[in-house]
């Protein structure tokens, strides 16, 4: 096996045994070192609560979320817009972006995060995640580290994403299961799918408009959707409304 | 044309082939069919790929992958039980060492069709034959699958009819249906004849793991 191949096999063998966030962190930390980087971060943005598994300093990550940096972070913004792996940081981004973003990179650097590469990941219905390998080493060029292994890093990021979803999502089973929607929730969604407004549904189902909103919101949360429109699409796709 | 069986324990050694298969899947399931699947760059993967799958990868004579299918044991989570229980029509989902679940079946029509008349059919038959060989290799005797009525017709014409579990239902834009595909030597040999091959099409034999 080539070095890249054995790194991937080692990663796959290890991640299959991971059952909690700490173990996922260990698996990715090992991979990070094998590829010549110092730190990794897996960030998933789904609905309101972001999910992070990383070996970044805790002082940095808690500050990051406290200040809502995920809105500002140029890496996250870029990961939302692009599909292919990209590198960031170093000289180039010290000059690019607005003043706020430059200050953000300066601050990250003080925590040892100077440059890196990021794999954007798209799930269904606008959900996104990013898998990042980073370094604080000024002389290291992230792009060169993975010159032979872009496919490898993409596959690692995507596998990490799917393994986390399969093993850690509390909703994983129910996210997939059909019976989780109550009859009322299905009714309200089905009418919404047919173009009825909340006030119409209230009349049709004979409940208060406020209660219709309550059921729709519950359904939206259960299906992990960001909006009612997305929730309807997801429910239709899973055949929940037939 | 032949098929290669690839189990999780062999991913590293066949990284390029594996990458090519995930690329093929992205083209078919995301770009063409627009399914709600996870993609990164050129690749497609979902949570069921984390459950120790065996992939059967159909190789064109020129050496590039032109089709694939994923096999999972039904002793763990399955697409039928955990994503599409609505297709069971109230029947219990199969959980049995002797039953494998197949999913993500695809043959890249644009790659195959240009090669020779009838080559699309032939590619499909060879992948079907590879599935039967994999079932036999795993000491199982049938496959359970979630598919659509279009594929059901192809299977029937190929002499490998789907034994329905329940009536088809509209799921998204397709008429989805779940059922069993039973393995028999007779069916396999008929498939060989239709595919115009003399014998086994599946290379590598680590398939006992698929049912483990």
Automatic annotation (TrEMBL), chain A:
UniProt superkingdom: Bacteria
Keywords, sorted A to Z: DNA-binding, Transcription, Transcription regulation
GO MF terms held by the record: DNA binding
Domain HTH luxR-type as annotated: residue spans: 174-239
Keyword Chaperone appears in the UniProt entry: no
GO biological process, one term: regulation of DNA-templated transcription
Name under which the protein is recorded: HTH luxR-type domain-containing protein
Source species: Bradyrhizobium valentinum
Lineage of the organism: Bacteria, Pseudomonadati, Pseudomonadota, Alphaproteobacteria, Hyphomicrobiales
From TrEMBL, chain B:
Enzymatic reactions: a fatty acyl-[ACP] + S-adenosyl-L-methionine = an N-acyl-L-homoserine lactone + S-methyl-5'-thioadenosine + holo-[ACP] + H(+)
Organism name: Bradyrhizobium valentinum
Family to which the UniProt record says this protein belongs: Belongs to the autoinducer synthase family.
Protein's name in the database: acyl-homoserine-lactone synthase
GO terms assigned for molecular function: N-acyl homoserine lactone synthase activity
EC number: 2.3.1.184
Top-rank EC class of the record's enzyme: transferase
Pfam families given in the database record: Autoind_synth
Keyword annotations from UniProtKB, A to Z: Autoinducer synthesis, Quorum sensing, S-adenosyl-L-methionine, Transferase
InterPro entries xref list: Acyl_CoA_acyltransferase, Autoind_synth_CS, Autoind_synthase
GO biological process, one term: quorum sensing
Domain of life: Bacteria
